[in-house]
Amino acid sequence: MGALKQGLVVPVYAIAIAFVVLIIMLVIIRLQTHSLSSVGTKSKDSINTSTKGQEKEVSDLISVTKTDDLEFVAAIMAALCAHTGKTVSELNIKSIKRVSGNESAWRKEAILNGNG
């Protein structure tokens, strides 16, 4: 009976030690989470402050890009009007896509006429 009792005591101690270690790890993780969450909010505040200045720069860049795109469309529209002899109100550009390669019909025509 003594061997049976000793055989049951060892696993009970092992399980108890495992639970104690798990509880200690839980406490450590909670402490780290609490201490790191306060650090995270401070860095988020500084990030928000620094990104506010960058948002203005990005919006300025986007407006410049839209203006450049509008000028690009206007230049293409003027070239088409000059080539076809139609007025701007007679033309309707639905989309503009870049052609892969440099050998477009427009480029070949420009080269033949000595303008390219």
**E-strand count:** 0
Stretches where pLDDT is under 50 for at least 5 consecutive residues are: none
Cα-based radius of gyration, to the nearest Å = 37 Å
> Helix coverage percent of residues?
over 70%
Number of domains: 1
Biggest β-sheet: count, sense, barrel? none
End-to-end Cα distance: 105 Å
Q: What is the count of helical runs?
A: 2
Q: Write the element-wise H/E pattern from the N-terminal end onward.
A: HH
Quick one: overall form?
rod-shaped
Helix/strand/pairing category: mainly alpha
Mean pLDDT over all positions: 76
Strand content: under 5%
Protein model, in words:
- This protein has 116 residues and is mainly α.
- The protein has one domain.
- 78% of the residues lie in helices and 0% in strands.
- The chain contains two helices and no strands.
- The longest helix is centred in the middle third of the chain and has 83 residues.
- 0% of the residues are buried.
- The model has no long low-confidence stretch (mean pLDDT 76).
